Amino acid sequence: MSITIKNVEHVANLARLELNEEEKSKFTEQLNAILKYVEKLNELDTDNVEPTSHPVPLFNVMREDKTRPSLPIEKVLLNAPEEEDGHIKVPAVLE
């Protein structure tokens, strides 16, 4: 498979990019070089390689959930810029 200038123009149009002729040629060359490099992967023997979702094992590093007492409301409201009826008052985001 090869990338043509028409392909680059099409993708640039989808991305709402305006490219000059020099940029179109440059991107065509670069994308073809990338495809050529990726085609080297077809040379690898992957017959005995199991499919994986991630190349390294993942472990959950989160702590265990434990209940604990909350801060008293008076202490929380000390840091609030404004307070109303025991709640933190924030600017309205909806009209």
UniProtKB/TrEMBL annotation:
This is Aspartyl/glutamyl-tRNA(Asn/Gln) amidotransferase subunit C. One of its GO terms (molecular function) is asparaginyl-tRNA synthase (glutamine-hydrolyzing) activity. GO terms for biological process: glutaminyl-tRNAGln biosynthesis via transamidation; regulation of translational fidelity; translation. The gene is gatC. Belongs to the GatC family. Its EC number is 6.3.5.-. The lineage of its organism: Bacteria, Bacillati, Bacillota, Bacilli, Bacillales. It holds the Pfam family GatC. It catalyses: L-aspartyl-tRNA(Asn) + L-glutamine + ATP + H2O = L-asparaginyl-tRNA(Asn) + L-glutamate + ADP + phosphate + 2 H(+); L-glutamyl-tRNA(Gln) + L-glutamine + ATP + H2O = L-glutaminyl-tRNA(Gln) + L-glutamate + ADP + phosphate + H(+). InterPro entries: Asp/Glu-ADT_sf_sub_c (IPR036113), GatC (IPR003837). Gene3D superfamilies: Glu-tRNAGln amidotransferase C subunit, N-terminal domain. Keywords: ATP-binding, Ligase, Nucleotide-binding, Protein biosynthesis. Allows the formation of correctly charged Asn-tRNA(Asn) or Gln-tRNA(Gln) through the transamidation of misacylated Asp-tRNA(Asn) or Glu-tRNA(Gln) in organisms which lack either or both of asparaginyl-tRNA or glutaminyl-tRNA synthetases. The reaction takes place in the presence of glutamine and ATP through an activated phospho-Asp-tRNA(Asn) or phospho-Glu-tRNA(Gln). It is an enzyme of class 6 (ligase). Heterotrimer of A, B and C subunits.
